[in-house]
Amino acid sequence: MELFTPDFGLVFWMFVAFIILFLLLAKFGWPMILKNMDKRADTIDKGVEYAREAKEQLDNARSEAQKYVAEAQKQQAEMLRDAAKMKTEIIEQARSEAAVEAKKVMDAAKLSIEQSRKEAELQFRNEVSKFSVEIAEKMLRHQMQSDKAQTELVNQLLDEIEKN
After folding, report:
1. CB contact at 8 A, 164 and 158
2. Furthest-apart CA pair in the chain: how many Å?
3. For 97-132, what is the HEC assignment?
4. Cα distance between the two ends of the chain
5. What is the mean pLDDT of residues 95-119?
6. How confident is the model at residue 2 (pLDDT cuts 50, 70, 90)?
């Protein structure tokens, strides 16, 4: 059983070695290990904080990007409405100008037609008057070949003038 039970000297020296090792570790080892663990914990905390800040910045950037996109879409819709409105106005203006121009052309054509009609009517009257005078002249020559017919015509005309 001696193998399983150590002597008092062995236990004493093991205990002394343990105490010395414990004191050395307590004086030099543990503070350094704790210091490194604290540094590591601080680094991890800073990393977590940076990650949290980066996430917040990313969320803010996303929300701002969504705002800009929404504003851009709103401006695009407004521009499209304005363009459609301008298109309608331009079409209406062109129609009204075309209607005014067509009215001017129609009025000018009516005036030209009316002037041509009046000229034709005047020319027709002149021609009719000319033919009437020629016919009357021929009839009077034929009827006025004798002196008696001439005298009767003059008397008749004088009677008519006296009545009026």
Report:
1. no
2. 200
3. HHHHHHHHHHHHHHHHHHHHHHHHHHHHHHHHHHHH
4. 185
5. 93
6. low
